[in-house]
Amino acid sequence: MNTLLSFAQTSYEYTTYSTTSDVDEATLAAVGAGIFIFSLIIAVIAYVVGALLIGRIFKKAGVESWIAWVPFYNNYKLLEIGGQAGFWAILAVIPVVNVVSAIFMYISMYNIGLKLGKEGVFILWAIFFPIVWLIWLAFDKSTWNNALGAPSVATEHTHAAGPQAPAATPTV
Q1: What is the pTM of this model?
Q2: Tens digits of residue pLDDT in 85-98
Q3: Taking the alpha carbons of 152, 153, 159, 164 in that order, is the dihedral positive or negative?
């Protein structure tokens, strides 16, 4: 037993490691700024590509394509043309509520896919690869059919038939 105890005590060398580095603060600041600028450029490219694709989908749906460039309003309109209440786009910034908002967004995307002639399983593209879903719907030859899926609640679709004639009043 003494042999094992002495072996255990002598076989490990305890060393301390320092967390300091030889890199100066200016270099670290430059690397941090570079990462920030790179991330900002990627975010702007993603926003531009997303807005262009959503704009093409809006054009198919009869909605003004410039709406795709306005933050929150583009999601509001996307929810509306998919038959959901647009206020879920605003509630998406609240923690925990954003999960419910995402579910309504997926339901809206499902209905948009149906309105553009896609099968119900097409929603899996929107859930797992949203960029593929956007590209597919933006560039395929499908046309908008508002009769499919949940009815759109967008003002462009509810007032598309023009002003409604007032209901006749019954005479007694």
Answers
A1: 0.75
A2: 999 999 999 999 99
A3: positive
